[in-house]
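Take a look at this chain, tokens included, and explain the fold to me:
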Amino acid sequence: MKGVRYRARLLPFYCTMESWVRPLARVLLALLGFMLWGAATALVFGGAFVILTYKNYKSFFEDYFLLVPGWLAIVSAFLLLPTGALAISIPARNSRYQQGTFMYLLIVLFCLEASSAVLAHVYSVSISSELDRTMGHLFQQYNGTYSHHPGSRAVDIIQRQLQCCGVHNYTDWRESAASQHISAGNICAPESCCKETYSHCTGDMRLSEQLFQEGCLRKLDSRLQFVMGYVFWCCVVVGCLEVLAAISNGTLMKQRPFQDFRILDSATFS
């Protein structure tokens, strides 16, 4: 009797809670739909940054799988578009088919974004040692500003675009006997090390103020750390939004539960 009385007292509380939980879930799910569209834009930018960074400086990367987090982010972004549309339409139509499809897409998206986040974190940790090795080799093999060798062109490109000089700093060119060249008896860095404000710069290392001071390894590593960190946190934030969307959709699905399966009795057909 006590248990029956206790449940009877709690019944009005549950009814009151149900009266505001479901409307809140509808509003929250619709808002999350628009937020998922915005998250799709952020993921597209993150994936594009990863792919463009790899293509611009692919000579310094040995691992082709560096592209995987970028492509996973772009695929996730395109899947977020129909997912956001479903999140907006479900509160209005309350369709069982849309709710089920929405849940399925959320599971697929969560797997894609988790994979992209893990790979982005792993590569951000391990990429520094790879860059130090490959960049040091290419800088050692450098054979002139006007060389047609792909490695030499890659060195000039990275020094101009990132405004850097040498692997660690411009003094690397003084210590690199294989790549240094002499002009008027002076050791010179490549002309790609020259700052744009000095039009007559020849790379003379005695005029160090005309050369970029920072090394290319640090600048490229910083860019990769930023890009991978951006993709990682985008995936984490989008994953949290998807969890909220799944909870909201699940709350609405409770409003119209599936009909119970019943065992067919032979008397039904008699």
Summary: Residues 13-17, 258-264 have pLDDT under 50 and may be disordered. The first strand starts at residue 181 and ends at 183. The CA atoms of residues 28 and 248 lie 7 Å apart. The two ends are 43 Å apart (CA to CA).
